[in-house]
Amino acid sequence: MKTPSSVQHPVAPNVLIGLIGAGLQSSMSPTLHMREGAAQDLIYLYKLIDLDQLGLTADALPALMTAARQMGFNGLNITFPCKQAVLPLLDGLSDEARNIGAVNTVVIKDGKAIGYNTDCLGFAEGFRRGLCDAPRERVVQMGAGGAGSAVAYGLLQEGVQQLSIFDIDADRTMALVNNLNAHFGTDRAVPGSDLQSAMQSADGLVNTTPMGMAKLPGMPVPAELLRTDLWVADVVYFPIETELLRSARALGCRTLGGGAMNVFQAVKCFELFTGITPDAARMERHFLETIGQL
After folding, report:
1. Over 50: is that where the pLDDT of 33 sits?
2. In sequence order, what are the residues at sequence separation of 6 or more whose Cβ sits closer than 8 angstroms to the Cβ of residue 8?
3. Range of the structural domain that residue 218 is part of
4. Does the predicted model carry a pTM greater than 0.85?
5. Catalytic residue annotation
6. Are residues 269 and 222 both part of a single domain?
7. Are residues 248 and 160 both part of a single domain?
């Protein structure tokens, strides 16, 4: 008979993941990933690396990336304000990440860090589920940063005919517009100039800026520019109901919150990190349970 000390127990695979960004304390990513990890019999640890909490800026990103490699992280999620700043720190990019020009997922394996973008897939899946029959001749997008690049790509893939992009950084806006037109055709994307005029002729509005997050309350457009026949989408998901969505719903607009994008980008991230196909319905259920909507 074997003594207790000699009994061999199967050891679950270990997975160590981090999320680098600013203002992360309300993030649901740790819960989503770790609950699915447990369901898949993994020892799955997901750590927040919050620049605000650490008193750091995006300038610390090179050091954080080096530390993650040295400490044996299997991967990282990257969010505001680091989705574009991380690009030169990587050993390679997926085709989609290269085309979009932004990374939200880094897989660290065999000494190499490879960047992916699952935001585009996540937004497109949420859009198909929540606004599948929405008109899409003209759409206004607020923001041309990392999330904005992925969402713009997804919107044009989903059939938006012309996307007007507004951002406080004119150079960043033009870089995104030129990149989109190179992939989708001339004038599919245009730099926004007159927000009021663009909103008057738009079928939909998408916010890809951090405006509306708990740490950045407010709206990316004046409330008086909203109207009943406009559909409104927001990528912010903490809080789950931003001021923009609340104002739009009060008018009777169709809306799409950031939860769907968050869930479906996480589904693909989990697969990239572990090589295991997660249960998407279970991850969506966990998300809804966490925010108290199930």
Report:
1. yes
2. none
3. 120-260
4. yes
5. 83
6. no
7. yes
